[in-house]
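Teaching assistant here, posting this on the class forum so everyone can see the example we discussed in section. The complex has two components, and the goal was to see what a joint structure prediction looks like when all of them are supplied at once.
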Amino acid sequence: MTLLSFCQWLAETEWSIALHESFYMYPLIESTHVLALFLFAGTIVMVDLRLLGFAFRDVPVSEINARILPWTVAGAFVMVLTGVLLFYAIPVRTYQSLWFRFKVVFLLVAAFNVWRFHRRVQKSRVSWDSDERPPRSARVSGAVSLSMWAGVIVFGRMIAYNWFDCDRPQSDFVYWLSGCIVELADA
Amino acid sequence: MSLLDFFESLEQSGIGLLIRESLWLFPAVEAVHLLGLSVLGGSLLMVDLRLFGVGIRSRTPEQLVRTVRPWLVGSILIMIATGVPLFLSEAVKCYYSYSFWVKMSALGAGLLYTFLIKHPVIRSGAGAGVQAVIGVLSLAIWLTVAGAGRWIGFS
């Protein structure tokens, strides 16, 4: 089974159709997804500003991590839950959305950056925990995080726009990137 | 001239027309609006969490207010600088949108509350109970601004 046929199967399920056609549920889930930016992206930005040495310079990095990152995790939980529901409501179009694909790529890089920061960069933290300006490796982690999550937010917003949808005439390159089935699109 | 006439003339203004006639400008400006929202949310939460007794406990709420001030004020300025053009491009729709008026009222309340009540109360060294109430109100007002703002798009 391909991912596309899985999405096609998802789209036929009772709950997916109900969510798609709901008058209030979909906008409510979507709004929760956006409002959770406060918690999720907001806390990420603050931790990154500390890593870059732009804010909270007198607070040890370990304290920011310990006191703020649990809130980021809580925000991530809300994001994933509402995000999965949003995908579930409109599976095929979202799967074939160029913007969604960009978002996933940025999301993966951002996740890798998180993993790398915790497994690698932080190994030497004791030696720079209270530095007003952390070492280059930590600053790079913060900068990568800020730019990748900014991309995730921007591309996520763009999913709503249908410029590159498969049911509109596109270049072969866009068809390929979006995983469009040309025969389906022409039909 | 009625308020509606005024909103109609705003929509016909240079910036309003420029955005409405462009395919990309509205989404692009809106995306920056969302990035600003993230910085605003973080700036508010760093203080509000501390008011609940969690967050950066080695610093007083007053110290945190001072630390986040440039980011708070900067993000509010970004929100206004992107929000005004978005409004201008669909002023008449906003005029008829209940969400728009809720948002603008909450925004006014949020700005007055943050700078004229929340920060002064924090500076006055209020007790834990008062701090918690101050923090809850802050989040409630600003989430209303964000939620009603999002809902403009659904109306």
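For the discussion questions: Chain A has one domain: 3-186. Chain A has a mean pLDDT of 94. Think about how each of these relates to the inputs above.
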